[in-house]
Predict the structure.
Amino acid sequence: MPKLNIQRENVAPCRVKLTVELPVERVAKVHRDSVVKFNRQAPVKGFRPGKIPAKILMGRFGEAIAEHAKSELLEAGVREAIEQSGLEPESRPVIEDEKTLRVLPGESFVFAFVFDVAPEFTLPEYKGIEVTRAAAAVSDDSVAEWIDTWLQRQAHYTKVERAAAEGDLLKASYKATLPEGGEAPPPSAKFYIEAEDTWLPLRQPELLPGVAALLAGCKAGDEKDIEITFPEDFGEDSLAGRSFPYHVSVSEVHGLEKPEFDDALAQKAGLDSAEQIRERVRENLEVEKKREADRAVRDQVVRALTATLDFALPAAMFNRTVASVMQRLREEQARSGAKPEDAQKSHDEMLARANQRAREELIRFYALQKVAEAENIQLEAKDLDQALDMFAEMQQVTPKVVLRRLRDSGRLNELLLNLREAKTVDRLVELAKVTETAAE
């Protein structure tokens, strides 16, 4: 197919305008084809499809025929102009003055469209970036701490014959004395006012505010009078900010007891001895430390690569990324328990953070893309297969199901970009000068 007559203009940073001229012969052919199509399909009473006289056809459908031809010319012209120019749009092409464009069979068809393109910039030297990697050695204290946490998770409450201490669980009865003539708390507050033979934790979160300190030292059979003050932000509104005298009767004290770390416990866990548990813990901690060190090295090379980069970004891509970051920030805020009105108050601050984070993400994206091009990094079938296998195992489905879901959701291309980016960072690490540091 003959080349099109194209003029390129950079109308803004990362935004290109292409003015395209389609020759008279092509315009005439597309118009003729549109006439034939309408002649076959247009419903005109008294005439069979394909036998409508030209005068009648053009009189009734001339404008629709011209619009159809215009649509065909624009679609093909945009596609061919982009291919011929060798550009890769970062946004959907937008036709300028599309409504005013007219197709005339005896004239060429000229139109212009604009779209965003990737930024042009010079990569800094990326070979030999100097980074440090922390040694993966694991201390005896780290092993002991992990084992202690593991034992804590397996601890259980057991009845004890001693004074209660913070962290214990009391079996107790309690009752508040309400002020005479005062407003009685609603049924929703009843459990806070009195209970018989219930469990009263002496740890956070406390059922009754301050009870851990007030009842520490009590023994089974003790009775004690205490004063409970509910904070202003207490969850039960009817009690918030109020104080009541309580009478508490303790019937049992239960303490949290950890299991002994011995061979018997190891055998329950499927290993031969306590020492074997220590060895396994050390090995697992070393693996995790190595992963952390690897992640830190990868972060360092990317930060070093992008530290000095500052360039204009495609507007459409930037706006989409800002919107995505804003959504993530709102979700983080919601998970932290923020109220909708608080989120609204912090909108401007959140938008500023989203703009900054979006800029950092896109600079990272384009810089790694450029490294991938320079190093000719390509994805292989096995790269995708490994990723599909991993997701399949996580989701308990087959790799084919994962692939279908990715295609249906439109996220397959995102996965491919992420895989290529990961390989690019791998290459940067290979090229880096890595210095091992001593273990802390």
Notes: Residues 304 and 390 are 30 Å apart (CA to CA). The longest strand covers residues 243-257. The chain has a mean pLDDT of 91.
